[in-house]
What we know:
alpha/beta
Amino acid sequence: MKLIATRVKEYKSIWDSNDFEIGDITCLVGKNEAGKTALLEALYKLNPIISTDSEFDVTNDYPRAEVSDYEEDVSEENREPATVVEGTFELQGDDMEAITSLFGKKALKNKKLTLSRKYPDSRGSVTSTRTFSLEANKDESIKYLIQKANIPADLQKKLTEAMDDVAAMLDLIATVEATEDTKRLTKILKVIQEHDVSWYIYNKLLSSRVPKFLYFDEYYQMKGHENIEALKSRQESADLEQSDYPMLGLIGLARLDLDQLLESARTQDLVNKLEGAGNRLSKKVLQYWSQNKHVQMRFDVRPARPNDPPGLTSGTNIWANVYDSRHMVSTNLGTRSRGFVWFFSFLAWYSQIEKDYKGSNVILLLDEPGLFLHGKAQEDLLNYFEQELKDKHQTIYTTHSPFMVDSRHFERVRIVQDSGIEHEDKMPKENDGTKVFTDVLEAHEDSLFPLQGALGYEIYQTLFVGKNCLVVEGVSDLLFIQTVSTFLERSGRTGLSTDWTITPVGGSDKVPTFGQSKGTKCGYFD
């Protein structure tokens, strides 16, 4: 099952985001306060990997300017609870196989499933309900169900004639001797009688296949140390902190659980498993982390000491350290750069998700994933998305950095902007708030800046910069050299080799800076 489109309404800064398409990798680009995070938060609640995160709260989530009017309208039954998020999914081969094997190839009118989640109903329901929409062909489904059943031909004929009345069909089946086939047919028809074919297909065949959403932002980062007893207590009471998830992922990667950390029968077994987890994560980090290739992850479990940090002075602690082989020192993970901590924490939790949900469908929602990364490290992260995630999980991420926009795939970009911020005059509700666009002509220039930056960097890298670069002062020099080179070639003499790219930099004072910025060997000629 694949998410192909989504829409968010009446949530925080969003009145109506518009429908927008989702691909294998989707990049939500916009300036600060545009509403990018709100879009991911709402989508996450559609089917979160942490089930307790599915609830919408009217007080906190409905647009503040009109929350009182909304609550009054719902309580007085002037309107229904608002639908906050819709997701349209396209059924894939294994989904269709599950349906067609029971109801035939004509069971569905199309391959689309739409899921939505509403605010709680203050008149009764205290939970955010999720609903579905699926266009099923009832007659064709029941006809196929009858044809495939191993029942007498005369009963098949009577059931086919009575297809419009499921109750009558059940009465007919009750007149013959009960077999496994008639029992199975009766069971399915009773569900269809109480609900309908669409309900059966979704709840019995598809609901377990709906992708889970994993949301990850800067708050899901390891602190670099944790008290194991406290972590175990939070886990048992289902009161985990956001930073606990990557730490538990790390422990799972070592093929251990919290009890084993506390009660390991043999020290060397524990050491070996922690080293193995460190080695696996180190290899994965270094594969896509070009900032420092001399780091290794090391983990340690030891009794607490009186002068350890607050919360770690009793019981047993686990420590995550980074060993730098160049400087031959270890530092706690929590003291490393925020970009490194983010990348490592994500890999730790993601590794556990891959293990726990192997064979299942998980969609990744990454909020500002490159926020603390150098531009080159952001390029590493894009390569990680492309090579490690794209074929396994759909990935939706937000950014305002030009270096997190893949210039090879501008078709993945969706522009996010808050129309109310861009206009001083009050706007009608249908035009106000956060909107998502694919057409650049509809976007404000501030929202387009990351795209312009990405495009400019790509042009700089490919159009004007080659392996061998002849840097000149201005465009007139470029034209002069090209003209002379062409004249020489037409005269049978040697012109400038095509291995050289002529690059005007806009002034003689910029030539040294340009050469240094490329980090290559330069020769200067006056």
